[in-house]
Amino acid sequence: MPSTPAKTPRLTGEALHAGYESRRVLDGVDLAVAEGQLTVLLGPNGSGKSTLLKTLARTLTPSAGRVCLDGQDIHRRNTREVAQRLGILPQGPSAPEGLTVRQLVGMGRFPHRRLWRQDAERDARAIHAAMAYTDVAAFAERSVDALSGGQRQRCWIAMVLAQETDLILLDEPTTFLDLKVQVDLLELLSRLAHEHGRTLLLVLHDLNLAAAYADRLVMMRDGRIVTSGTPRDVFTATHLKGVFDLDARVLEDPETGSPICVPTPRRGARPSARPASPTVDRRCIS
Ligand SMILES: Nc1ncnc2c1ncn2[C@@H]1O[C@H](COP(=O)(O)OP(=O)(O)O)[C@@H](O)[C@H]1O
Ligand SMILES: [Mg+2]
Q1: Residue-level pLDDT at 13
Q2: Is 55 touching ligand 1 by the criterion CB < 6 Å?
Q3: Does any ligand 1 atom lie closer than 6 A to the CB of residue 47?
Q4: Where is this region: Disordered (predicted)?
Q5: How far is the CA of 46 from the centre of ligand 1 (A)?
Q6: Which side of the chain, N or C, has fewer Cβ within a 10 Å radius?
Q7: Are 231 and 214 in contact (CB under 8 A)?
């Protein structure tokens, strides 16, 4: 049973069962996403993280259980109403060829547009603010497919920000990026939660970055939530073994106190040329 978060949940999943025609994936998931926090969902490949995000965002209908957005069943709200409150960036999004950054970011405004009433000024302000926040304005007229992975990912985040929802779900926004670019993106997302009061739920792969930036971690395996709580509470060697089958020691960052995992290579896998101690007689090492 997940522990109750301190802040009000904006989005909750209650006893969720969901999957695809050929396959059941979520098997009784209970989850509460707390307001103004950065929650990170972790789990091995195929554990159901993307399926859970899609179910929470109303892209996928659960076969049992329900999702509540601000206390109301999300399936009883219409698509536009949901899109005005909740933005989602799916895993590995792709843009139509030749689409410019400005056009992509502008797509975030669709939920706010109506045939008979269009607020072009408000749209332009939202697009400008989103591009400035993510620092993509310099290449606004360039084609999205001609950008580096990190630049492109910032454009997708700008698109979600232009939607002006205070609840944002991002599925693996940092995968395949250099470590520095991942850190820059996480700093940006963390500021959204902690300085601008947005509520974020992210799927991440890097365990140590997740532990460093998350207010709450949720760990999944085989369509179930194994544990959730603060990184200090749940980022333990026992959970890393139980969820990821990973042998690791968990240490503490001396500066921030965040837990860090250090995988422990099995005997034969360790580098052979490393001296056992500083006093070793190097002539003995062949
Ligand atoms: N569209 C789909 N149709 C059928 N099975 C799917 C589909 N998408 C994902 N799955 C299966 O559902 C399981 C969970 O997938 P997913 O939620 O994408 O996991 P994760 O995001 O944790 O890697 C996997 O076994 C995957 O193969
Ligand atoms: Mg996934």
Answers
A1: 97
A2: no
A3: yes
A4: 257-286
A5: 6
A6: C
A7: yes
